[in-house]
């Protein structure tokens, strides 16, 4: 039986990954989390409460702050694992602009510590580093970035994620650590933090409040993203973990990277309109130019998902997923409370 160590296991995306692993495999799971701003054990409680005891006992929860090296007691608690999935990260753009060193410590130093832990494992099959679309910076119209395109970070958060990604590549090259890197963008789903765009829209539309929508300087063109449900991200992750892929190109790059992207691009106004329609309510909104007044907030991000499609994986319909999340959130509205 395999064992997987997941950092940030009480976080939003990671707890969906844990759900998928429990549902589709017999793997044992070690969740490593410091339970701060993003981590919430109530997510795991919600996830595990209706499962059989034999399934629940496959999940072990360990408290550890990745800024610190793994001491012998923590290493003993984790034990030997076959897979490490590094999802823990500081991910709030505004806070990274206010305090960049915090994000360097979390996303660069923390990544180095988990990489060092992983390379001491005796039977490691895969180290998966979760990166982000934001390392590539804003995407001009009609441009979608491929996995190995250049970095162009526009805020300390994205720069720290790029730094962690390069460390993962370096460990792949220096120590032959079996690294995969994924880039995801604008993940949504059940139990997401209520400050995020989709749960914020659900709550404000329900309550008849005005929804603020990021736009260009003319306040006519809203920002756009490729949205993807967290369950699709989890499904793509398991697809990658259950298969072996190599990579090499003319530049000599060998570390495999994969863009995990939603099927369609939506501007944020259209998305808010959909959320309103699912509630049978009218959207009250204001277009606001965040980018000019708050550097680091980019109007458009876009990734090319053709590589994963060519390998045989595709996400489900965003519209259906979004409708389900709206209904679930309204029926479980404690997850909408700030």
What characterizes the major β-sheet? 7 strands, parallel
Strand segment tally? 13
Counted up, domains total: 2
- Averaged pLDDT: 93
Task: Output the structural class.
Answer: alpha/beta
CATH architecture of the largest domain: 3-Layer(aba) Sandwich
Order of helices and strands: EHEHHEHEHHEHEEHEEEHEEHEHHH
Poorly predicted runs: none
User: Roughly what fraction of the amino acids lie in strands?
Assistant: 15-25%
Strand order of the largest sheet: 3-2-1-4-5-6-11
The level of helicity is: 40-55%
Task: Give a written overview of the molecule.
There is one protein chain. The protein is an alpha/beta fold. It has 13 helices and 13 strands. The chain has two domains: 3-187 and 227-260, NAD(P)-binding Rossmann-like Domain (Rossmann fold, 3-Layer(aba) Sandwich), CATH 3.40.50.720; 193-225 and 265-299 and 317-336, Alpha-Beta Complex (UDP-galactose 4-epimerase, domain 1). The strands form four sheets. The chain has a seven-stranded parallel sheet, with helices on both faces. It has a two-stranded parallel ribbon with strand order 7-10. Strands 8-13 form a two-stranded parallel ribbon. Helix 1 (12-24) links the parallel strand 1 (3-7) and strand 2. The longest helix has 20 residues, at 100-119.
């Amino acid at each position: 039986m395999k064992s997987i160590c997941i950092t940030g296991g009480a976080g939003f995306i990671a707890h969906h990954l844990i759900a998928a692993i429990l549902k589709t495999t017999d793997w044992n799971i070690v969740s490593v989390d410091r339970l701060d701003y993003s981590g919430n054990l109530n997510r795991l409680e919600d996830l595990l409460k209706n499962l059989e005891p034999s399934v629940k006992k496959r999940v072990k929860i360990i408290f550890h702050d990745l800024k610190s090296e793994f001491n012998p007691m923590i290493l003993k608690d984790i034990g030997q694992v076959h897979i490490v999935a590094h999802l823990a990260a500081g991910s709030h753009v505004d806070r990274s602009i206010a305090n960049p060193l915090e994000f360097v410590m979390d996303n660069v130093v923390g990544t180095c510590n988990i990489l060092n832990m992983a390379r001491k494992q005796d039977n490691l099959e895969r180290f998966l580093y979760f990166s982000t679309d934001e390392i590539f910076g804003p995407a001009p119209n009609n441009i979608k970035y491929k996995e190995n395109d250049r970095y162009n970070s526009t805020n300390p958060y994205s720069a720290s994620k790029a730094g962690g990604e390069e460390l993962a590549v370096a460990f792949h090259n220096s120590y032959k650590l079996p690294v995969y890197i994924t880039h995801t963008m604008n993940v949504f789903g059940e139990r997401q933090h209520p400050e995020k765009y989709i749960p914020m829209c659900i709550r404000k539309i329900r309550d008849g409040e005005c929804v603020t929508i990021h736009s260009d300087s003319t306040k006519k063109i809203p920002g756009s993203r490729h949205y993807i449900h967290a369950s699709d991200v989890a499904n793509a992750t398991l697809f990658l973990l259950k298969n072996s892929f190599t990579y090499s190109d003319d530049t000599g790059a060998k570390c495999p990277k994969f863009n995990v992207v939603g099927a369609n691009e939506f501007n944020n106004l259209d998305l808010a309109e959909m959320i309103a329609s699912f509630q049978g309510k009218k959207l009250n909104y204001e277009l606001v130019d965040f980018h000019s007044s708050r550097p680091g907030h980019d109007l458009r991000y876009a990734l090319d998902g053709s590589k994963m499609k060519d390998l045989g994986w595709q996400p489900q319909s965003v519209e259906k997923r979004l409708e389900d999340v709206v209904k679930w959130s309204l029926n479980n509205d404690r997850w909408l409370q700030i």
